Amino acid sequence: MMNSDSEENVAKLRNPPSGLSGRFRRAGCSHLDQVHDVTPSAQGCEECLKIGDEWVHLRLCLTCGHVGCCDDSKNKHATRHFRTTGHPIIASLEPGEEWLWCYVDEVPI
Question: What is this structure's pTM?
Answer without folding.
Answer: 0.77
